[in-house]
Design brief:
It is a single chain. This protein has helices at residues 2-27, 229-263; strands spanning 34-39, 44-46, 52-60, 68-69, 71-79, 86-92, 95-96, 99-104, 107-112, 119-120, 126-134, 140-150, 156-167. The chain has 285 residues and is an alpha+beta fold. The strands form 3 sheets. A 6-stranded mixed β-sheet has the order 2-13-12-5-9-8, with no helix packed on it. A 5-stranded antiparallel β-sheet has the order 1-3-11-6-7, with no helix packed on it. Strands 4-10 form a two-stranded antiparallel ribbon. The chain is elongated, with a radius of gyration of 36 Å.
Amino acid sequence: MVVIVWRYALRLGALVAGSAGVVLTLAAPAQAAFATEMSGLPARFTAGDQVRTISAVVSQTDRRGGCAKVRWSMVLRVQGIRLDQVKVDRVEENGDFPVETRTEGDVARLTDRQLDPGTLCPGRTVTARYRVAFAEDVTQGRVTLAAEAYDANLRLLARQTATRSVVGAGGTGARTPTPSPTPARPSDPPSEPAQEESIQAEEPVAEQPVDAAPPPAGRPVAQTGGFGVVQAAFLLGGLLLSLGVGLLLRLRHLTRAAKDEAEDPPVDRLWERPAPTGRWHPARR
């Protein structure tokens, strides 16, 4: 009986461990295996006739993966300026690329109407180019650009975000007032010249969440961050593993108790007189 109980316990433990492994294996492909970089960004944008060409490049970090088609989506957020003061064109080598534009408040999203001509493979990248310009009446503001790469099923592969300041065509942004220099005595060393202006340092390119409308409605889009599929899978695997360990310990306790009871007789039967062995002889009269 003890061997049978242990056999069932081992089978149960193997089943729980296998279920946890399957869950983790199915959740592994959901982890990010792609990266996006943005190039051509200036330290700041200048309003007017100046047009900047920005490139977004997506690459596949997993060398074991296959090839995939890419659909680009650019999210634009402005601060201190209006969306109608910004012009963004999606271009390719043969000219303009058709996009679908959706706006909400100070956020606009430009999503490709068709897949990018390139193919994303291990060791091969896909590039999207955008031309960005600002109206002449812009004096000062900020703009946030987020390049998002999706696959053919609108699953988000990678996102890169950058924020830059925008200044007017004839200005250099807000100047910092400087005190007038005090004439120095002949014996004193000359004082250093005061800075005439303060230029905003370039902000690092980092991953930031962008609050904008999703790509075209009616189609699912996988999102990153938060409590996703991977976290849920690991939590489910941990619960299954804990349940299996608890069942194994419970079966072990029951098996040990059954074995001890079989070896040691109950307390209420310790003082019973054992039945006489041998044949029974009838009494003679």
